[in-house]
Write a structure and sequence with these properties.
Chain lengths: 302, 449
């Protein structure tokens, strides 16, 4: 009994002494090797969204925060954070925030599976990049969305869902405009649009006329009516597609959109692909319409 | 020197694909059929920069006339395969990438005459290497084994890399394909002539004609023809895929290994040209004849009348299939061999310089891939000593950086791994995707800099 008691005491004592010694060592080491951390790094990091999306060009939020605090990097690079983050960073760093424009991803294709079917049976890897490598991808239109949902899978903010017709639907609220989907898409059907512009083209086909109609009823046939009817003269045709000069028109292409016989212009507030003829009613479709639209998560398909 | 007869093979990996089909067409002589009424000549049907169209709609062109001019050194000219009128310059599908590529559409006028100065005997004996090279360049010769690398580039090895061995690649290790076999039987002397011209251009003493053992008649023909040619030897090869891959062939014959990380055959003093390419080079130098036609095997269980044909570049594949008859149930068309060839999404596409075979198969079912069971068969099969299983897994997970560390960029996509995989994984497609992703990342980084 006595023996056991003394073992316990010796053990407790020796552990205490050892603990104290190590603690002292750590304390001295912390003093000796102290490094001064820029407190601004932590502050900047706090002000960033923390999605580590890489849209700023840095590996993650921490790298960007360090660059801002220590190397004087531009405070307006955080795309998901938008003007708010830019302002917060400018405040911390004591600089002018500069002009940060919020962007949103938009899809330039309305030809889902039902309208623009596959031209062959594809049995390869179920993602867009791999599919595009196989004979150019199964989609009949060589310019349209392949519909495997690589963009939805890549979106770090969960802003993209695939519709039943296998077209990406972008949730304008969740989309931060980081541009990852734009990079991922092998067909380049997604682009970034300044969020205050509300209209864009829903087709990427560089074909014209009959060649488009044979593939997809929704396609832009390059009739050029939009360019003719646009009062601002802000539409130029390149590769059989209208190129919209948003600054020139102040973002207003309503006349051109009205002129389009195929309703190729999409109003950003109702980013759902609208069948031809039904796009007559404009603006005002609420967030609910978007959310209520049947959608399928890209990962759920597998 | 007596012809060397010991069988050569590459040291590592490889497979022996089942092939009941070579026998179906190997006995059929190359046939020249009636030319099509219309052709579509693609501006980009080779590795390197695409050619620039130099004709316009409505232009009259002669047979062999230049219609697309090479842009830069690594590029190739393209020519009109017959005389006629340019109907349009518009995009057509390029069978290798599936992408749309600018094409010159020519409608035949039925006249047979070559453009002036072409297809005439040249004064070869007085030519120097540069003149011969420029003829090869002018005639738009590219590697006809399928890789379509511009031949004049290969004939211009970098200064300081002398060539000690020119190897004519008659391995034809892909199943089904028999065009090189037929060319070797039917144009033996011209191939040897081409080899000698190539040896002259690169100033090399030793030549090889490498043929797989499954073509004993071709080996025999060359051994006969090469009697009294001490500098040129026949190298019989063991029947093993990918014996005809450039790196594997070089190792099999010379024992040298092309360095990884973008090494060239010239780094180990070798130059390899495919049989058909050698003939095209020979025709370019001897006759100034542009590359406007090529030999094609049309075969597969979905084809009624299989055979070997000489076809004009730009002929519509659908027309060829219709001519040879497609059996019911046919559901897959591959351009190229079954191992490295590319399954097509449509047959409405023009024949290009790299198409050595059109294979139509029927009742093809695509097996569903399963998870990798780590059996290691792909590792044994990989002729490059890569780890295809790991590559496919990292690509599936989207870890491109890990794939890069596993040397994904060394992969030649020969397909041995996917061929042996018991889980039927699409290893090659995943690797192809990984390469695209890495290229994309690199481009993005460059843009940001």
């Amino acid at each position: 009994m006595l023996l056991i008691g003394s073992i316990v005491i010796v053990a407790a004592l020796s552990m205490t002494v050892l603990g104290a010694l190590f603690g002292l060592g750590l304390m001295l080491a912390a003093r000796a090797f102290r490094t001064d951390q820029d407190p601004r790094v932590a502050k900047v990091l706090d002000a960033l969204p923390g999605a580590n999306c890489g849209a700023c060009g840095y590996a993650g939020c921490r790298s960007y925060a360090e660059a801002v605090a220590q190397e004087g990097e531009d405070v307006g690079l955080c795309i998901p954070g938008g003007p708010d983050a830019a302002a917060a960073l400018a405040d911390i760093m004591g600089v002018e925030p500069g002009e940060a424009v919020r962007h949103r991803a938009v899809v330039h294709c309305r030809g889902g599976r039902s309208l623009c079917p596959d031209r062959f049976e594809y049995a390869g890897e179920q993602n867009c990049t791999a599919a595009a490598l196989m004979a150019g991808g199964p989609k009949a239109c060589p310019f349209g969305c392949l519909g495997f949902g690589s963009c939805a899978e890549a979106c770090p903010f969960g802003a993209i869902t695939m519709s039943e017709d296998r077209l990406p639907v972008i949730d304008a609220e969740k989309c931060t405009g980081c541009g990852i989907c734009v990079d991922v898409c092998p067909r380049n059907v997604i682009s970034l649009l300044p969020a205050h512009f509300k209209i864009y083209l829903g087709c990427s086909s560089q074909f014209r006329g009959k060649a488009v109609k044979e593939l997809c009823p929704m396609g832009c046939i390059a009739c050029r009516l939009c360019a003719r009817e646009d009062p601002n003269d802000a539409i130029k045709f390149e590769n059989n597609l209208p190129v919209l000069d948003y600054d020139k028109a102040g973002g207003d292409f309503s006349a051109a959109a009205d002129a389009c016989p195929l309703d190729c212009f999409i109003l950003a507030d109702r980013a759902q692909p609208v069948p031809a003829g039904a796009a007559g009613s404009q603006q005002g479709a609420s967030e609910e319409t978007q959310l209520a639209a049947p959608s399928l998560d890209a990962k759920g398909r597998r | 020197m007596t012809p060397q007869t010991d069988t050569k093979r590459f040291p590592r990996g490889g497979v022996h694909p089942k092939d009941d089909f070579k026998a179906r067409t190997s006995g059929k002589p190359l046939a020249r059929m009636a030319p099509p009424a219309q052709v579509a000549v693609l501006m980009a049907q080779h590795i390197g920069a695409s050619a620039t169209p130099v004709v316009q709609r409505g232009d009259k062109v002669k047979k062999g006339q230049l219609v697309g001019e090479a842009r830069g050194f690594i590029s190739a000219n393209v020519h009109a395969p017959f005389s006629g009128v340019v109907k349009a310059v518009e995009p057509r599908i390029f069978s290798v990438t599936g992408a749309l590529v600018e094409a010159v559409i020519i409608e035949s006028d039925g006249e047979g005459a070559w453009a002036e100065g072409l297809n005439q005997p040249q004064r070869v004996e007085s030519m120097d290497a540069a003149q011969m090279r420029s003829l090869v360049h002018e005639c738009g010769v590219v590697g006809l084994g399928g890789a379509t690398f511009p031949s004049h580039v290969k004939l211009s090895p970098p200064a300081g890399s002398p060539i000690s061995d020119v190897i004519i690649n008659g391995a034809e290790c892909e199943p089904y394909v028999t065009v090189d076999h037929r060319l070797m039987l039917e144009r033996t002397d011209q191939i040897i002539d081409g080899l000698k011209l190539i040896m002259r251009v690169v100033d090399c003493e030793t030549g090889w004609v490498a043929i797989e053992r499954n073509k004993p008649d071709a080996i025999e023909a060359f051994e006969q023809a090469l009697r009294g040619e001490p500098n040129i030897r026949v190298a019989p090869l063991s029947v093993r895929y990918p014996q005809g891959a450039e790196q594997q062939l070089i190792t099999a014959i010379t024992g040298r290994e092309v360095p990884s990380g973008g090494g060239l055959p010239a780094d180990v003093a070798c130059l390899v040209h495919n049989v058909a390419t050698t003939l095209a080079i020979r025709d370019a130098i001897r006759l100034r004849r542009p590359l406007i036609e090529r030999a094609v095997t049309i075969t597969g269980d979905g084809i009624e009348n299989a055979g070997n044909f000489i076809e004009l570049i730009g002929t519509n594949v659908a027309d060829l299939l219709e001519r040879q008859g497609v059996r019911p149930g046919a559901n897959q068309v591959i351009l190229g061999g079954p191992m490295m060839g590319i399954a097509q999404g449509t047959v409405d596409l023009p024949l290009v310089k790299g198409n050595n075979a059109i294979i139509v198969r029927r009742d093809v079912e695509a097996p569903l891939p399963r998870a990798c069971i780590r059996c290691g068969r792909c590792v044994e099969a990989c002729p490059l000593g890569l780890l295809p299983a790991e590559l496919s897994i990292t690509c599936e997970a989207g870890d491109w950086e890990a794939a890069r560390r596993l040397d994904i960029l060394e992969c030649k996509e020969c397909g041995c791994c996917a061929y042996v995989c018991p889980a039927r994984r699409r290893i090659v497609q995943l690797i192809k995707q990984g390469k695209v992703e890495l290229r994309r990342q690199k481009k993005k980084l460059e843009k940001e800099k």
